[in-house]
Fold this sequence. Notes:
By secondary structure, this protein is an alpha/beta fold.
Amino acid sequence: xxxxxxxxxxxxxxxxxxxxxxxxxxxxxxxHHYNVGNPFTFKHFHNSIISHLENRVNYKxxxxxxxxxxxxxxxxxxxxxxxxxxxxxxxxxxxxYTSYSDDLVTKHSSEIMEQMKSETYSTFWQxxxxxxxQSKSNWSIEGSTGRSxxxxxxxxxxxxxxxxxxPAIVGFCGAMIIDDPLKATDIxxxxxxxxxxxxxxxxxxxxxxxxxxxIILIMQRLQEDxxxxxxxxxxxxxxxxxxxxxxxxxxxxWEEKVSTxxxxxxxxxxxxxxxxxxxQEPNSNINSSFKGLNFAExxxxxxxxxxxxxxxxxxxxxxxxxxxxxxxxxxTYYVFGKxxxxxxxxxxxxxxxFFRQKYMSGMNxxxxxxxxxxxxxxxxxxxxxxETQNKHFKIMTYLYPAWKNIKFIEGTxxxxxxxxxxxxxxxxxxxxxxxxxxxxxxxxxRTKVIGMRPF
Length: 455
């Protein structure tokens, strides 16, 4: 089924073309229906985003636009439709599209062009394209005025020759699109967060060819001091903000995409993911005690050899197993951590044995309160002890003051680190901070380490 099958006359096609040019929502409906084959699912939050995007193109505002929305809610599809719609209105616009990955921006640039080459699009707007010889992701439309089209590049790459806005036209003339400036798993690295902000300030903002060219940043929140956080603190007057929360009034705003039950489960088990990425609220209460993060340089990683390990065991479906390998050199703790969420300790033993051999760790320690010596009997070189200390007191007494002296080894689970950073007295899941605090306590309360068999 094509658009010409449903709209037979030139008059009907002309009316539909005008409706698409005047309304981004109408355009998305038509393009998605005929190109994808099913209706685009519009939720109430789409209307707010579409209205803000239209306001820029209609020149009702030149303020920058920050859109924080949950992971998996189709932000890139919206942006791709938005850019192709803009070119339907005026082929002379100039867009700069950037993201954390060169492969991603190349993919999205190609998808926008293919959208504009589709039979549906070509029925209304018949364009031929010129591609840049220097880049497979940069292109413009034949017959356009000035330096127009789409230029695309990764945040971490060179942006020479990339521009946003076309001074040759009056009014709205294009925009800079920043789509996920930092990979979600890189947010734990302070240097990468700072580098992202530096590139925004020192490079991207210099590529606006006119002062009224808006920047549109669309991303899930990751942490308080991500790029969105920096902007909200340092440039609040320059930005309109749209914040989409996946859970409103204890109900999912898009039940078919992610159910209420699933969101409540994420809130319970992984608040460090739920609040930033689904609610756009990287609340300081989540990681107030364990700010900052240090990783060992490659040449330092040998300092973890000949240490020992600690296991916080999981036995039932809702519990997790945390595993810590640790050693100390001078005042620095070198730590490798793994977290298996909702996994019985038996299912983790092979992996734990592999890492013990890899880092040449000696004795494995675990408390026997919960297993009556089970692990001591079933896992080689394991020493068990009776835990008598309050867990929160132990974490705040040993892990908290040592935090600034901890360097994590590459390969440590992000979930292990996140669970520590999200810890507070009321946290329901504390396997990782409990394991690491117990390991540090062994160093602090015992003094003699001999070879691969500590103490």
